[in-house]
């Protein structure tokens, strides 16, 4: 290979170096923008269960696939307990009423 091939490789290498430096500058600028952005606000604390005081979403790390649908007032454990309670005489005569706020 002659001198022309060496010049092409050198020109290609310079082009690659220039592109690499441009990417590095772009990443540095992006990092600076991210560093200046305020941290996101923490998620609001879930409401406590009326019955036991735990969050109505349940404890983290527990699976509640078999729990009744959320009612906005009780945690999954309490909703399951309430659903499994036997009917009272009043509920048997007049039907189960679901109080809503």
Question: Can you walk through the features of this model?
Answer:
The structure is a single chain. With 101 residues, this protein is an all-alpha fold. Helices cover 49% and strands 0% of the residues. It is built from three helices and no strands. The longest helix is centred in the N-terminal third of the chain and has 34 residues, at 3-36.
Quick rundown:
With 101 residues, this protein is mostly helical. It has 2 domains: 1-37; 41-94, no CATH class.
Percentage of residues assigned to helices: 40-55%
Q: Got a strand count?
A: 0
Radius of gyration: 32 Å
For the biggest sheet, the summary is: none
What letter string, H or E per element, gives the SSE order?
HHH
Tell me, what's the shape? rod-shaped
Question: What is the residue-averaged pLDDT?
Answer: 84
Beta-strand percentage range: under 5%
User: Count of DSSP helices?
Assistant: 3
**Secondary-structure-derived class:** mainly alpha
Domain tally:
2
Show unreliable segments.
Answer: none
């Amino acid at each position: 290979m002659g001198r022309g091939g060496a010049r092409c490789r050198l020109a290609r290498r310079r082009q690659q170096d220039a592109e690499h430096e441009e990417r590095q500058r772009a990443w540095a600028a992006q990092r600076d923008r991210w560093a200046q952005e305020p941290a996101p606000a923490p998620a609001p604390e879930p409401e406590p269960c009326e019955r036991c005081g735990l969050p109505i979403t349940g404890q983290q790390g527990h699976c509640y696939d078999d729990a009744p649908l959320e009612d906005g007032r009780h945690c999954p454990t309490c909703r399951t307990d309430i659903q499994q309670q036997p009917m009272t005489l009043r509920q048997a005569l007049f039907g189960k009423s679901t109080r809503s706020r």
